[in-house]
Amino acid sequence: MSKRDLVRLCRYYDGKDDSGTLTGNDAMFYFYEQKWVQWNLMIQSGEADEVRLFGEMIDDYNRAGLEDFESGDDTPKTIKALLLNRYNHWCQGDRFKEFYIKEYRKAIE
């Protein structure tokens, strides 16, 4: 996938280097989606560390029982896995689903 194709899958990141006027969680989501696009491009170029990192995040996401969580919302599973990873790093707890729906997905509602 090209950068343009990957950016189309993002809710916040628009392909620019700066998040502009976004603040709070919206700015954080912009940053994480930006990193997601960069990591995907690195994976496509064969960088093994990113492949391993994404694999671990997907494994953690599946172990958490989220493999079918919001499967119809057009957000790639790898973005959700990244968000879960960061949620667990900063918040820890079992409220990721609520956080995802109320904070992240609000961009489409």
Can you give a write-up of this model?
This protein is an all-alpha fold. The protein has five helices and no strands. Helix 2 (24-44) packs across helix 3 (48-63), helix 2 packs across helix 4 and helix 3 (48-63) packs across helix 4. The radius of gyration is 13 Å and the shape is globular. The two termini are 27 Å apart.
Structure summary:
The chain has 109 residues and is mainly α.
Give the secondary structure arrangement, pairings included:
Layout (H helix, E strand, L loop, with lengths): L2 H6 L15 H21 L3 H16 L13 H14 L5 H9 L5
Helix pairs in contact: 2-3, 2-4, 3-4
Class computed from helices, strands and strand pairing? mainly alpha
Mean pLDDT: 90
What is the total tally of β strands? 0
* Rounded radius of gyration (Å): 13 Å
Task: Give the SSE string.
Answer: HHHHH
Q: Largest beta sheet, briefly?
A: none
The percentage helix is: 55-70%
Q: Give the helix tally.
A: 5
Report the portion of residues in β strands: under 5%
List low-confidence stretches: none
**N-end to C-end Cα span:** 27 Å
Tell me, what's the shape?
globular
Keyword list:
109 residues; mainly alpha; 61% helix; 0% strand; globular
